[in-house]
């Protein structure tokens, strides 16, 4: 077992905790309304007697979308930090997982495509974190679309890799868990998009809730890579950067070189 096992868990813990901190700051600074609020007005007038605490009068501009929560300072500073550091960790996880599969002689277009989509997801996160929606709306929405679409494709492709590469009962259990997470991500992203294009306050609020579930779900998915990262070594990064045929085959769940695992089983020969 190596220290790399902490990387996926750190990404999930840091990002989820950080995003909820951003949300809490935005609510307390009255930049968005709480997620439990479903009542919206066409307009609101500032009440001098109402100081501190969450807003009680909300408009569509106060819907607690993740992007809205990170629009204004001071929470925008933390939001940018999460986007930048999270993007780096996502790219590193994708690169290490790609190299790990190469070590197992899993040379395939699916593995390569997974690396590309993961890095694209990271690039989208950089744009989202550094270009706030109220200040660079078009660029922010492009980054969001890229990050969400690439993230969903990444988890779906990795479900296929996990399922077809399972060699032990625990590998199969992890594959099923990832399939469940990918299904949740797919459903919530579709619902979020469908709700978001409507001007109804109820649907906009529903879109925000679906967006939160989608993002947290994807982050949990990344965290599951701790299961395989116990086998990551310095050679894994070398394999990712300079792939070479004929490397020793390693099992997914531990750091020892497998003497019984077929490096190119028929079930994954085309994946």
From TrEMBL:
It is a multi-pass membrane protein. Residues 4-231 form the CWH43-like N-terminal domain. InterPro entries: CWH43_N (IPR019402), DRAM/TMEM150_Autophagy_Mod (IPR050911). Keywords: Cell membrane, Glycoprotein, Membrane, Transmembrane, Transmembrane helix. The chain crosses the membrane at residues 78-96, 108-129, 141-163, 175-197, 203-225. One of its GO terms (biological process) is protein localization to plasma membrane. It is found in: Cell membrane. Signal peptide: none annotated. Its main location: membrane. It comes from the Eukaryota. GO terms for cellular component: plasma membrane. Belongs to the DRAM/TMEM150 family. PANTHER family: FASTING-INDUCIBLE INTEGRAL MEMBRANE PROTEIN TM6P1-RELATED (PTHR21324), TRANSMEMBRANE PROTEIN 150A (PTHR21324:SF6). This is Transmembrane protein 150A. It comes from Equus asinus. The gene is TMEM150A.
